Amino acid sequence: MWYFTRYQWTVLFAAWLGWGFDVFDGLLFNYVAPNCVPTLLGLPIGSPQAKQATLYWTGLLTSVLLIGWAVGGIVFGLVCDRIGRRRTLLITMLLYAVGTAACALAPNIWWLLCFRVVASLGIGGEWAAGAAMVAETMPEEKRVEAGALLYTAAPMGLFLATFVNLQVAGNWMVDAPEVSWRYVFLFGLLPAAAAFLVRLFVKEPERWRNLGERAEVRIGELFTPAMRPYTLSGFTMALTALLTWWSCNAFIPVVSGGLAQTAAEAAGLDGTRTLAMVEQWKTLATSWFNLGGLIGTLLTIPAAKLLGRRAMFALYWVASAAAIFATFGLDLAPQVRLYLYFAIGLTVFGVFGSFTYYLPELFPTRLRGTGAGFCYNVGRVVAATGPFLVGMTAARGTSAAIDVLFYVGFIPLAGLLFMPWVIETRGRVLD
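Now predict its structure.
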């Protein structure tokens, strides 16, 4: 079942690197925000004003990232169907690598925002090309396994971001937080090297090459009477997942860092030891979240194959709500709350393992990149309101952030209302 040909493994690995570095570059800001934002605003790192500004700007910049991500996903989804999966994957990887590395040179918060927009266009565009390429290269009976394996790159990308930030800000440059974040951003150039793998070893999928003469693809085709139900099904499921994930994940470093700082002050630690503790607690929370996401991603394989896609989504929505309510609603010790991020990762993060095979299953080859890119990314425009609103509320402090995150649990419950419109694709052959 898990056997692929050597070339199929090459395609899967190339797309895996693209998506892993996509997530790596996309989330680097959230790790460095407590040092980056105060430095660019001229505020003392760790001061009450810095904490408030960090929460606000984390929400705002994450929302801007999501809007750029949505635009890039839609635009490059169209490009993917017109010029091919391979070339689109290469272009988008280079775009987000250069945009992220440029953040290291930002002289103020506004230039940082501009560079994040550039990176977000490539980040959004990479997913549709990679998912379409894997779905079209793999045998029908192995598509679910390949899609879930592809998405394991996301938690691995977050593990890498956590590791890079810990090494740079928590070990190598712990005494220089005002500049350490710039070196973290420079690691965003790593995907540029991976892009050469795509250029050298990957070719266009046969399904796409065999289309022959291609008519011009238009977004409007997704809303014709024949395609509208499929578009609605993919969009509603992706929207629910995106709004929940970004409202939770964008604030993991900020919440865990705030809890650590409070604990360090209570223990009477000095400034250097406090900064080290903050980085360690951020690593603890994100590591448990990522581990849960990795396991949850792989669990979509038996869930999708045994229960079907519709029942799988319903199961993940109920479990996501339960995990969020428990983590942020119960009266818990700070470190226990950090460990419970595993449950959020298992559910809120894990469900994304299904989109790499579910969305390509909904659309024919000539519309696959456009349809999957639209469904997976346009929801980010709506999802952008989540981090922004949570950030505005959470700017009042860490306890306020925990209080507002509790209510995020109602988002996956609302996703259950869309279940009557979800199209079952179990056993379907790609058009």
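The chain has a mean pLDDT of 88.
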